[in-house]
Amino acid sequence: MSAIKDLMDHYYTTYSTGDYSTVPFSEDVVFESLFGKVEGREAVVKHLDEAHAMGAVKEKLVPFNMLIDGDKVAVELMGELAFDIDIPDFPFGTAKKGTAISVRFGAFYETKDNQISRVAVHRF
User: Fold this and answer.
1) Which long-range contacts (CB under 8 A, 24 or more apart) does 42-51 make?
2) Residue 117: which CATH number?
3) Taking Cα atoms as reference points, which of 15, 2, 25, 1 lies closest to residue 115?
């Protein structure tokens, strides 16, 4: 279990930098969220770049409850989002330049070979 916990800690640290190419995704990762389903490492990295307005939306993930069962992980977390631009149609309300919001999520992960192979994100 310690290896999976270490992987998840590494995932949250690298994801929160905004350089999604450094996130430990497998080549065949599947990423599901309210924005749809994206498959493959390259497509997921591109999706995350675009979802975060190419760096104009900074997101720090803060897990506060984690359950690990074999290669599966369930997590409650807060996404702390800071905006460098206005996004009037942001999915969680109007986003104004210079503001920040916190959004509570649940996420389910599958891992293999010390990489994240599946992510399913759900908003409360």
Assistant:
1) 44/20, 45/20, 45/21, 48/20, 48/23, 49/20
2) 3.10.450.50
3) 25
Q: Which amino acid is at 48?
A: L
Total domains in the fold of the chain: 1
Contact 97, 109 (CB under 8 A): no
User: Rounded to two decimals, what is the model's pTM?
Assistant: 0.89
Domain of residue 76 covers: 2-123
Reading the chain (124 residues) residue by residue, the pLDDT tens digits are 599 999 999 999 999 999 999 999 999 999 999 889 999 999 999 999 988 887 788 999 999 999 999 999 999 999 999 999 998 888 887 789 999 999 999 999 999 999 999 999 998 7
